[in-house]
Design a protein that fits this description.
The chain has 19 helices and four strands. With 438 residues, it is of the alpha+beta class.
Length: 438
C-alpha cells in the first residue's frame, strides 16, 4: 500500500508539472530589458554617489541661460547660482568655467583667472557643451585663462595657455597669435611679438586689429616707415577709430588701449587727443618697457603747433570758401596761446571748444559789411585725476577768451575775399585744447 501511495504521488506531481509547463508556454513571463535594468542600476548608484547631481545640473542650466543673455546684472545673478553649484559638486569643472565667463564679462581679471584655473586643474582638456563669449569649445578654457592671466600681469602663464591652443591647431588661431604677440610685447620681447603678430596677419589679412598691433610693435621698435604703413591700412578700414574704442576683444594689457589710441590720433594729426591718451598711459603705467617711447611721442604732440586736422569747420546755408576756411584757421591760431594758458593747471584734461557763428549776408559789391553773432560752448572730452575746481576754472577761462576774441575781424576778412554771393548762414568750428606740459 505504501508503495502504491508513493507511485500515485509521483503521478500527481508529473501531472501538475505538465499543466504548469503548458500554462507557461501559453503565458510566458515578460522578457527582461537588459538596457533598462542597467539604466536603473546606474541611476541608483548615481544618486547614491552623487546625491546633489540633479540640483547641480539645474543650477548650471539656469546660470548658462543668464550668461547667454549678457549684462552685468545677469552675470551677478549667475555667479550667485554658480557658487552654490560648486559647493554641491566641487569636483566638476563646469561651474568653475561658467564662473570664469561671468567674471570675464565684468572684467574682473583676478577672479576670472582663479575660476578658469580651477576648471583647468580639474580637467585640463575640458570642452564646454555651450559656446559662450564666441569661443570654440575646444579651446575655451585655455583662451579664457590666458586672457585673464595676461590682464593680471601673469604674462608667462598666459603664454603657456595661448601656446597650448596653437599646438592643437584648432579654432581661430589668428586671434590667438594676436593675443600672444601682445603678451610678448608686454614682456618687452619684441622679436617674438613681431613673429606672432605677422602670423596673425597671415591668417587674418583683413583684421584691422592686426595692423594696429603691428604698428604699435614697430613703433616700440622705432621703425617709423612700417608704423606708417600699418597705421594707414588700419585707419583706412577703421574710420573714426571705432575698433580701438568699441570692441569685445580686450587689448593685452588693457591699458595698452591708451597707447594704441594715442598713436592712431598722432598719425592723423590729432595731436591734442594723442597727448591726452599718452599722458593717461604714463599716469597708469608707473613702470614698464615702453614709457620712454611715450615720452618721446609727447615731445612732438604736446609742444608742436596745432595741425589743420585738429580744427573741424562745417557750415549750414552755404559752402565755406577757401578764404573763409583760411580766416577761421588764422583765428584759432591767434587764440591758441591764451587758450593753452587757461588749461595750464589741468594737464591731464582735454577740452573741446565749439563755436557757432551766425553770419549775415554781405553786399553784392563785395564790401565787408557782414555782421556776426556767436555762441560758444566748452566741454571736457577726456579727464583724469584733476581737481573739479581747477577744471571748472579752466572752462570759465576758455569761454571768456573765446567770447572776448575779435572773431568778426577774421570772419569778415575771409568773406570779403570770397567772390561768391552769400546768404545768411552758420559756421561751426570745433577744436581741442590741452596744456602743453605736465
Amino acid at each position: 500500500m505504501r508503495t502504491l501511495a508513493v507511485v500515485l504521488s509521483a503521478l500527481v506531481i508529473v501531472a501538475v508539472s505538465s499543466i504548469v509547463s503548458a500554462q507557461s508556454k501559453k503565458y510566458p513571463p515578460p522578457a527582461v530589458d537588459v538596457d533598462q535594468a542597467e539604466q536603473r542600476r546606474s541611476e541608483f548608484w548615481r544618486k547614491v554617489l552623487h546625491p546633489h547631481g540633479d540640483e547641480y545640473e539645474d543650477q548650471i542650466a539656469r546660470a548658462r541661460v543668464l550668461l547667454q543673455g549678457g549684462g552685468t546684472t545677469s552675470a551677478d545673478e549667475a555667479l550667485g547660482i554658480l557658487v552654490q553649484a560648486s559647493k554641491l559638486v566641487p569636483h566638476r569643472p563646469v561651474a568653475y568655467w561658467l564662473m570664469g565667463v561671468a567674471h570675464e564679462q565684468k572684467k574682473r581679471w583676478h577672479e576670472c583667472a582663479d575660476a578658469y584655473s580651477n576648471a583647468f586643474e580639474l580637467a585640463p582638456d575640458f570642452k564646454p557643451a555651450t559656446k559662450l563669449l564666441g569661443r570654440d569649445a575646444t579651446w575655451a578654457v585655455d583662451f579664457g585663462l590666458g586672457m585673464c592671466l595676461a590682464q593680471t600681469g601673469a604674462y608667462e602663464r598666459a603664454i603657456f595657455h595661448f601656446r597650448r591652443i596653437l599646438v592643437r591647431g584648432e579654432g581661430e588661431l589668428g586671434t590667438v597669435y594676436r593675443l600672444l604677440g601682445q603678451t610678448y610685447m608686454a614682456l618687452g620681447r619684441l622679436d617674438e611679438a613681431l613673429d606672432a603678430l605677422k602670423a596673425a596677419l597671415r591668417l587674418q589679412p583683413d583684421q584691422v586689429r592686426n595692423h594696429y598691433a603691428l604698428a604699435v610693435a614697430y613703433d616700440r621698435g622705432e621703425r617709423p616707415q612700417l608704423v606708417t604703413q600699418h597705421l594707414q591700412q588700419a585707419i583706412a578700414q577703421d574710420r573714426g577709430l571705432r575698433s580701438l574704442v568699441h570692441s569685445e576683444e580686450e587689448w593685452v594689457p588693457a591699458v595698452d588701449a591708451l597707447y594704441y589710441q594715442g598713436l592712431a590720433h598722432s598719425a592723423q594729426g590729432h595731436y591734442a587727443w594723442a597727448t591726452a591718451y599718452f599722458r593717461h598711459y604714463l599716469h597708469q603705467v608707473e613702470h614698464g618697457p615702453w614709457r620712454h617711447r611715450i615720452q618721446q611721442h609727447l615731445e612732438v604732440t604736446a609742444t608742436g603747433p596745432r595741425s589743420e586736422a585738429e580744427v573741424e569747420i562745417s557750415s549750414i546755408g552755404y559752402d565755406i570758401s577757401a578764404s573763409e576756411h583760411e580766416a577761421v584757421m588764422q583765428a584759432v591760431a591767434a587764440m591758441d596761446s591764451a587758450l593753452r594758458s587757461c588749461v595750464a593747471e589741468t594737464p591731464r584734461t582735454l577740452f573741446t571748444v565749439d563755436i557757432h557763428v551766425v553770419v549775415n549776408g554781405r553786399r553784392a559789391q563785395g564790401n565787408a559789411t557782414s555782421s556776426t553773432n556767436r555762441r560758444t560752448s566748452v566741454n571736457v572730452a577726456l579727464s583724469l585725476s584733476e581737481k573739479p575746481k581747477a577744471v571748472a576754472s579752466a572752462i570759465a577761462c576758455l569761454r571768456a577768451q573765446v567770447q572776448q576774441f575779435s572773431w568778426n575781424r577774421y570772419v569778415q576778412r575771409g568773406r570779403a575775399k570770397s567772390t561768391a554771393a552769400k546768404q545768411k548762414g552758420t559756421v561751426h568750428v570745433s577744436f581741442p585744447v590741452i596744456a602743453p606740459s605736465l
